[in-house]
Amino acid sequence: MCTYRYSNSLDYADTVQLVRDLVNAVPERLVWGSDFPHVGHEGKYATEDFLYLLEQWVPDVRALDRILVENPRTLYG
């Protein structure tokens, strides 16, 4: 899910519950991606800002490690 393509809110507040629901339901099936180079929105967004948001939305360090490290390792080898 790309927050700026999905959200109707400038601070993406309307995406928080969806992210948390996904993390609670299937943390073993999630990976993080940046949607870089933000086609159609070039120059408006910095990838690191979205990574910071992910850290705010997924405060559980174990779940965050799964999304950022373990799941991609399993998926991509």
Percentage of residues assigned to helices: 40-55%
The total domain count is 1
Structural class: mainly alpha
**How far apart, in Å, are the first and last alpha carbons?**
22 Å
Verbal overview:
With 77 residues, the chain is mostly helical. It has one domain (3-76). It has helices spanning 3-6, 16-25, 47-57, 61-76. It starts with a helix and ends with a helix. The model has no long low-confidence stretch (mean pLDDT 85).
Note the topology.
Layout: H1 3-6, H2 16-25, H3 47-57, H4 61-76
Short description:
This protein is mainly alpha-helical and 77 residues long.
Question: Which descriptors apply to this entry?
Answer:
mainly alpha, 77 residues, globular, single chain
